[in-house]
Specification:
This protein is an alpha/beta fold. It is built from seven helices and 13 strands. The longest helix is centred in the first third of the chain and has 15 residues. The radius of gyration is 19 Å and the shape is globular. One of its GO terms (molecular function) is protein-arginine deiminase activity.
Length: 298
Amino acid sequence: MEMKGTPSQLGYHMPAEWEPHFQCWMGWPERPDNWRDDAVHGQHVFAKVATAISKFEFVTVCASAAQFVVTKREPSSDSPEQKIAGIDWNFNSWGGVDDGCYKDWSLDLYVARKILGIERFPRFSHTMILEGGSIHVDGEGDDDTNGHIDNMCCFAKPGVVLLSWTDDETDPQYERSMEAFSILSNATDASGRKLQIIKLHVPGPLFMTDEEAAGVAQDGEAKPRLPGTRLAASYVNFYIANGGIITPQFGDKKWDDEAVRVLSQAFPDYEVVRIEGAREIVLGGGNIHCITQQQPAT
């Protein structure tokens, strides 16, 4: 059902990720020009992520007919009456014709409409170009936007932000982290609170190998995956489930363990679950938070 007006005018708001979920949505990796070796490695790790999240909440996986995957979940008989709606944003493959990950995203534009139709939720249309990883909210009116924010920083709770960090002044990430730290240190949230900043060190740095690049179909339809490319690996790219923190692990034991320690302190009432082999996800771009989307409970 197409809704008129804006969500806020009709009493809707976007809850924070730590508020209760009904379920989690995921998409199944398939494109051979984005996922190496026909996506078999990526699919293996996606399955691990879905399994981990399913210990805390229902998971629904969207797949093409050629890759149909059934994820069991209990149906919601009262979905139409829930005070939930979805926004059908525009999408341009993370950058458009010149900078996007691939050239044809025409089918992607139907995903939100399809999901909202299946769930029988009201739908708001919006021309703004957006994807899930571009926005984090604290559920109280504050938000972080612009770019792939879920690789850089996120809210742990109102007034508390986790920030990707490195102490290596020779790393290009250092300047970005310092700038972000300065901005956040001088910012207040919608309630006027100064932000507490928790530093979460990045792994590596990590780079795409010759073997990994060779496994991607370089057919000109998608952004080239070149050997030696710096991987956008970040422990901030985790998912908050109902009682669980699903966090990527990159095989860098020092920083893998440190990330678990920091996240355990930031979320003392949650179980921190490690997903080994998350490098396969970052090879395709992004990580666990990028491939998941919570559906709020009511």
